[in-house]
Amino acid sequence: MNPLANTRILDLTRLLPGTVCTMLLGDLGAEIIKVEDPVAGDYARLMPPLIDGMGAFFRSSNRGKKSIALDLKKPAGQAALHRLVENADALIEGFRPGVTARLGADYETLRAINPRLVYCSLSGWGQTGPLAQVSGHDLNYIARNGLLGGELHPQTLGAKVADVGGAYVGAMGGLAALLQRERSGQGDYVDVALSEAAMPFAMLGWVHACAQSSGDEVLNLAGANACYRVYHCADGEPAALSAVELKFWANFCHAAGKPDWIALHTATDRQPELIEEVSTLFRSKTAADWADLLEDADCCFSRVIAPESLLDDPQMKARGMLGITAEGIPWMRSPVRLGGDAIDLRSAPKYGEHSREVLLGNGFSEADIVALFETGVIR
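Below the sequence we write its predicted structure tokens.
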């Protein structure tokens, strides 16, 4: 199913999160036109590891998109973008606040050209507030929004929580604005702050609610309780136990031969001692041995799977979640699934590959295109 078929989206983003945001929308059937700087383009094109000279992440996150290299610093480039906007349904940008105004690509300018345009801005701190112009990356956003502060031992996370969260929030906001437009006939502006995207209730709501009512409970799901921790096994491999509910903790204790631990499930004063005892127990067997013992015990136990091992994971295989193309390009499908849908594995575009095609499809004449090429406005 392609619910966004015949929906055209202009993508003015680089790297994360915009690339993933438009990938999600492209997987739903939208036509994604990637508007790239003719000098550098999307930096992810050259980020290693490379596959045939193109970044592996770029290849996997830009599948099926079209690329036009357009210089928005030149008046002719801005004029060309304005013509593209006339036929666009949405535009997504990821510049620091204020940059699009200098490029003639801000919402007010483009709304005057196409009142039905849905415009989404992705920025670190949002378009307003004292931090709006402050630089930052994922680690800064989750440090400032309370997410890291809610951990027992704050540390660098491997996952880009705010960036990817911003991609999903941007897609959700864009879809909501497109639906509203079908009812009102008018487009809208979507302001996504990556720092806020990592704060939805599912990510930070528990911590926030507990912190504002009873600070004692803030760290319960951050490793302060023995029932919810990562433990290391005899072979050094980590394993996750998340027996939050008493029934799961009881199942674990019975399977591990420690029924006397059941009563200590939420005994706050006993947790440090209990953590040491459970840690010692886990170090007595390998991760494989624990999996044999606990995976069927219904106690919320999981081995920790390394990213390079995901291709062999039976759950991932059964769900068709990820793979590698015949050309050696890793892919991961969108977790948004509709009945009978299939992943689009078309290649990522070469730099400026579709410049001529996109312009022709938006009413530019051959003479217009030649002039733009000759003046270096497009590549």
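The mean pLDDT is 92.
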